[in-house]
Design goal:
Blueprint lengths: L3 H10 L6 E5 L5 H9 L4 E4 L2 H10 L5 E4 L8 H4 L5 E5 L2 H13 L4 E7 L12 H10 L8 E8 L7 H22 L8 E3 L6 H6 L4 E4 L1 H4 L5
Parallel strand pairs: 1-2, 1-8, 2-3, 3-4, 4-5, 5-6, 6-7
The structure holds pyridoxal-5'-phosphate (PLP).
Pyridoxal-5'-phosphate (PLP) binds next to strand 8 and helix 9.
Length: 223
């Protein structure tokens, strides 16, 4: 049995001030989330709409739920009433749908734009050029029910720490570029969400403000 509270404390002790932890609880039972909650954790990340709905209905109401995975547009409506942040917006279509559904519930949903920097071909996210194009188009400025709060990315799944660090640095430079060009007057644009169980210590040395750690807290997922 994994001692969730102990693992959580260990991860937290690695995080400098200003770096927040999203405890990635997908595929883990409520009991594990409750253990983390009892130890003080309030931000949890899930990536399946129905699993999230089940957990949100049965766990404490002051949990901040982040949707961290690829989100299909037809699932937006269900999560928008209660989601705290949608971390992986990977298309304008999704951004528009979040805006539309959020307007219907009178909410403004904080979101992050997902970048595709890693070499893996299967991952979602905007290339840097596609992200520049989206921001330059200005269409997002009309979407009053979404708030772009930063960027999110996953590094390549490799052992080469230098490569991982280089990818985080590339994302951090891109964040600075985007902030200067489009969000210079917006203090809410501040999140750099990178770092998972395998690479969060590297991520916090390379600009992360928000790590997403699952296995390192809850142990291996049983799918
Ligand atoms: C599952 C997942 C994580 C957590 O992965 P671990 O290796 O278990 O820490 C982080 N981010 C995203 C987007 C995920 O889907």
């Amino acid at each position: 049995m994994v001692d969730v509270a102990k693992q959580l404390r260990e991860v937290l002790s690695d995080l400098p001030d200003g770096v927040r932890l999203v405890a990635v609880s997908k595929f883990h039972p409520n009991a594990d989330l409750e253990a983390a909650y009892q130890a003080g954790q309030r931000i949890f990340g899930e990536s399946h709409e129905q699993e999230l709905a089940r957990k949100a209905a049965t766990l404490p109401k002051d949990i901040e739920w982040h949707f961290i995975g690829h989100l299909q547009t037809n699932k937006v409506k269900a999560i928008v009433p209660y989601i705290s942040m949608i971390d992986a917006v990977d298309s304008l279509k999704l951004l528009r749908e979040i805006d539309k559904q959020a307007a219907r519930c009178g909410r403004v949903i904080p979101v992050l734009l997902e970048l595709h920097i890693a070499e893996e071909a299967t991952k979602y996210g905007f290339t840097l050029d596609a992200c520049r194009e989206l921001l330059e188009s200005g269409v997002w400025r009309q979407l009053e029910h979404v708030k772009i709060c930063g960027l999110m990315m996953m590094a390549s799944n490799v052992d080469d720490e230098a490569q991982i660090a280089a990818e985080f640095d590339q994302a951090a430079r891109f964040f600075d570029e985007v902030r200067a060009n489009y969000f210079a007057d917006d203090p809410d644009f501040r999140e750099r969400s990178w770092g998972m169980s395998q690479d969060y210590p590297v991520a916090v040395r390379h600009g992360s403000t928000m790590v997403r750690v699952g296995t390192g807290i809850f142990g291996p997922r049983v799918y």
